[in-house]
Amino acid sequence: MKNLFIERPNTIVASLAPVLVWGIALVTFYYLDDKLSLGNLALLMVLASAIASLWLSPRLSMLTSACAVILFNWLFVSPRFTFIVDLQQDVILLITILAVSSVVSYLMELTRRAADREAKHMLQSQLAREHAQSHQLRNTLLTSISHDYRTPLSTVMSAASLIAEQAGRAPSEQLAQLANTILDEAKHLNRMTSNTLQLAKLDSRRVDIKLNWESVEEILGTVGLRARRNHPDRTVEIYLADDLPLVLCDAILLDQLFDNLIDNGLRHSASDKPLHLIAHIKAQELQILVRDFGSGISDEWKSRVFDIFQRIESPAVPVDGGGRRGIGVGLAVCRAIAQVHDGFIQITDTEGGGATVTLHLPLSVQPVMPALSGEVFA
């Protein structure tokens, strides 16, 4: 927040400050002359000069103070309306006024310089932190690419080489297995790339999402069907409350969000455990839950897993069938997608073991459906 009493003023304020000093002197002369002693009037003059020095530069403040002292001598010091001073104590008073005003101006200039140095130091510290974060992010990204992208690429290249070398000689079963390996690794690469690009897009703050009224049943039905097709050996169950409202959202982004959550839940639970998709209204909001019955997530990691490139490196966390771990982008994308929909996402424990990821979306005023018109034929 800007400090108006420390930062250097604009020209308008600098022009009005001397007018304020002279105005106070004139008001003092007309209204307080017969009520206050000369010493009290001098204190008011010092106060006016101090107020002016809050905004004025030292030279202009001292010039204004000198003018104010001259005016004070002319108006208040006997003999009035002259520049002659009869009493020695009045001379000391005028010198004191000018000295105090000069000291205040000098102290304000020191304060401004200290504030400027502090602001510059804070800016340099912020730039240094951003540079360090950027450097760390770059190193983490390079590490992830060097390992998590190179591994599936090596698998794809190896499988493709075997197909090329044994074309016409290898049995069809072996070729089909190699082709499935290539397909699985390509899907894994595509998912990591899509998540990374989507996160960069959402974090740019310039994303323009396309909001439409969508059916929760249709969105979850689509992602559930895709999950069953991609994981035919797993059980994905969908539980929907009655009369779910339409949701104003970008269906493509929500599809990606639930694909990531489902993939994450299946990857972190045993093959004989089901995965539940649940949608209901609670606490005046739409809540969509992805519940697994796996190893769960410790309280320490419940919030950290949504940060980019954060992965739970623990023997308790299984890798997928291909021996892979994600690069730590999927849940970060989920949080970003929830935020652009004015919602949020959180992780809680599943009763009996496992983790439940809940997407909280605000309820929107439902659209008015147009009434049907025209003749009705029997």
Would you mind describing this structure in some detail?
The chain is of the alpha+beta class and about 375 residues long. It has 2 domains: about 120 residues, no CATH class; about 150 residues, Heat Shock Protein 90, CATH 3.30.565.10. The protein contains 8 helices and 7 strands, in the order H-H-H-H-H-E-H-E-E-H-E-E-H-E-E. The protein has a 5-stranded mixed beta sheet. Strands 1-3 form a two-stranded antiparallel ribbon. A hairpin with a 5-residue loop joins strand 6 and strand 7. Helix 2 packs parallel to helix 4, helix 6 crosses helix 7 and helix 7 runs antiparallel to helix 8. The longest helix is centred in the middle third of the chain and has 78 residues. The N terminus is likely disordered.
Task: Lay out the secondary structure.
Layout: H1 11-32, H2 38-53, H3 58-75, H4 88-165, H5 172-203, E1 212-215, H6 216-230, E2 236-240, E3 246-249, H7 251-267, E4 275-282, E5 285-291, H8 330-340, E6 344-349, E7 355-362
Parallel strand pairs: 2-4
Antiparallel strand pairs: 1-3, 4-5, 5-7, 6-7
What is the 3D form?
Answer: elongated
The CATH class of the largest domain is: Alpha Beta
Total of helices: 8
Side-by-side strand order of the widest sheet: 2-4-5-7-6
Spans where pLDDT lies below 50 across 5 or more residues? 1-7, 314-324
* SSE order, one letter for each helix or strand: HHHHHEHEEHEEHEE
User: Using only CA atoms, what is the Rg?
Assistant: 37 Å
Q: How many domain units?
A: 2
